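[Discussion] Sanity-checking designs against the backbone

I'm trying to build intuition for which residues belong where. Below is a structure token string of 357 positions. I'd appreciate it if someone posts a full sequence so I can compare it with mine line by line.
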């Protein structure tokens, strides 16, 4: 499971626990808005010893909102609905984030909870379930879905939302086919793979303008047959704020004299003498993937114009961006639009005069 976009992705963070993997990707121009990134993992298999079951999470501030992504693999089998809820509560209790982000999973403005949650369809036998699927009467099955029913009785599920499920159960299939289980066990189809989200009450959110999340679709992908599960995906949008640092460059750098940038910092942005501006190829994956960098030095009363020598290893003509890295926030907080650098074996990145509000 991962939070991905299809093009120009940069990995913001990841967390793995045995077969469980959580990946968070971002387009490069969103990187300035991802701060306070932390990850956690909790084992619940074999009484907390084994990591085949449990949860992995990643939290961060995104566009000024605190967000947590929680990927869980909960206990299997029809009769273990109560154990699934107990494991979920245990994961929530154990996952506490440190530092300025000192909070639990449910303390975030937005929580995305997803994974192989393993909830099943109660009461109805195999023939009834398959007949409902064949006749597209999924509402009959939804009424008996264990997770859906648990929302009425489990306090920990209060506030969690799930989009309408308009796709057939995603488990269990004969591998390599679109045929539900024909093995001797004949496991009953179920919606084991789920994506839910939760918003904190408006009075508690960390951003004064609140949080707005919209779901655009929620679907399964029947074309994949490498597993006995069918993948599930969803797309959401979250409202955005302005960047802390805005960088400006010319559209092309053809001469040394072109290698100049300007930046404007937000009034309350806490600058550090250890901040730097990196030159990145478009498509970079991490803030340390710079081709070269220059310190964004801070003088007594102003930021003085300074020249810094940066040498490339070979001649190039590529698309680049500049990114402003904040030492205090341990993240990129401003980026330029892509621009081209042409045929420069060595060039100067000239530090700018600060532009104050």
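Best answer:
Here's mine. Compare freely.
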């Amino acid at each position: 499971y991962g939070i991905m976009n299809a093009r120009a992705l940069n990995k913001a963070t990841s967390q793995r626990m045995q077969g469980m993997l959580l990946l968070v990707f971002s387009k490069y121009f969103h990187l300035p808005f991802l701060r306070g990134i932390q990850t956690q993992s909790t084992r619940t298999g074999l009484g907390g010893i084994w990591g085949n079951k449990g949860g992995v999470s990643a939290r961060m501030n995104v566009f000024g909102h605190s967000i947590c992504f929680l990927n869980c693999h909960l206990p299997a089998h029809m009769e273990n609905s109560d154990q699934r809820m107990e494991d979920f509560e245990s994961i929530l209790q154990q996952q506490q984030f440190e530092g300025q982000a000192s909070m639990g999973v449910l303390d975030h403005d937005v929580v995305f909870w997803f994974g192989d949650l393993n909830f099943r369809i109660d009461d109805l036998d195999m023939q009834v379930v398959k007949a409902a699927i064949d006749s597209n009467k999924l509402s009959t099955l939804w009424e008996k879905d264990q997770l859906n029913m648990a929302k009425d009785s489990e306090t920990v599920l209060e506030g969690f939302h799930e989009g309408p499920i308009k796709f057939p159960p995603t488990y269990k299939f004969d591998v390599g086919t679109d045929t539900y289980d024909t093995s001797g066990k004949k496991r009953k189809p179920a919606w084991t793979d789920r994506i839910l989200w939760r918003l904190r009450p408006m009075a508690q959110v960390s951003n004064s303008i609140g949080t707005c999340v919209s779901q655009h679709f929620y679907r399964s992908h029947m074309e994949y047959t490498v597993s006995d599960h069918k993948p599930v995906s969803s797309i959401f949008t979250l409202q955005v704020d302005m960047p802390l640092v805005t960088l400006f460059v010319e559209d092309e750098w053809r001469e040394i004299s072109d290698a100049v940038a300007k930046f404007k910092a937000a009034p309350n942005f806490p600058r550090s003498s250890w901040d730097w501006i990196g030159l990145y190829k478009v498509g970079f994956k991490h803030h340390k993937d710079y081709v070269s960098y220059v310190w964004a030095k801070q003088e007594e009363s102003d930021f003085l114009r300074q020249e810094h020598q940066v040498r490339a290893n070979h001649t190039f003509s590529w698309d680049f961006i500049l990114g402003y890295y904040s030492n205090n926030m341990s993240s990129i907080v401003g980026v330029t639009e892509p621009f081209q650098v042409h045929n420069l074996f060595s060039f100067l990145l000239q530090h700018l005069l600060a532009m104050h509000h």
